[in-house]
Amino acid sequence: MKYVLIILFSAMVVIEATAQNPVRLAIAGLSHGHVDWAFNRQSKNDTKIVGIYEPNPNLVSRYMTRYKLDKSLFFDDLTKMLDQTKPEAVSAFGAISDHIVVVRACAPRKIHVMVEKPLATTLADAKEIQSLAEKNNIKVLTNFETSWYASNQYINDLYQAGKLGEIRKVMVNDGHQGPKEIGVSKEFFDILTEPAKNGAGALFDFGCYGANLMTWLLKGEKPVSVTAVTHQNKPNAYEKVDDEATIILQYAKAQCIIQASWNWTFSRKDMEVYGTMGYAVAVDPVTIRERLQEKAPEERKKIEPRPAPFTDPFSVLADVVRGRLKLDKNDLYELPVNVTVVEILEAAKNSAQSGKTVLLK
Hints:
361 residues, alpha/beta, six-stranded parallel sheet, 13 helices
């Protein structure tokens, strides 16, 4: 009984310490549609927002009113915000092209960064981000919704345990009806439909998921070649960017087909992995279809969600900053995988524009 009480007391001390020492978090940008999450986690006490950078006064006014935020939190100058509020971590919610700007400002100040997917719009920016992170010993994490999916982790565990055999074919399907169709904000729409800000359209917005998952499954292995086809099914809605993209990644012994679209009937994020011994399909975050023997029927099962902190990217960031969580170097959030993701996306963009397969070095 004495030892049980000691363990319980120790756990309470850890919880109390976390509550009293939240990570000082700053927000860089309010134009990305996922930023509201940062203000809708009142039940969590692992982070504290100490500053918000946003140069658009209309957005500042909107968020100040929506979440009853103090005016003193807002800055229209990124470096001034960093120097005055002294955050331990910054979460970037502007254009994808601004990720490099945020990391250039944060890295010399030893401030960790989390960005929304993908890491960058160009391979040059991705490599510079990696170099700055390594030089200044900071973490730069890339947040993907599919990183939270227990189903993807389950399939990876099956593969690592040898139950699927060698991977031969992977199909990743991601997207929704389209940004206009689902009603994203004007500011987010302007990012998604401007090649300089987003890299491309559906090709980057949803092609990044498949590149991220496949690189992770193969522990950082790069494809030999990348072939992509893009199209505008709705040119009146998406004048400057593709709304339909298919990417084929060819590896030495495997192939991955990524179907990224703003034309799906309904929103979807699913993955099919076929090996030499069996296959498994991640239908949604907690639903699996699998067949591990030729003479056995396919089985459908529900699994438990990922445990904390993996259901909340800000909790992941806080635990990484505090040293409570150490991610594998080829984790879905980590730089090695996500630099390769950008390399794949850039090659896919070049392939679609040229009509030719691109060979990776």
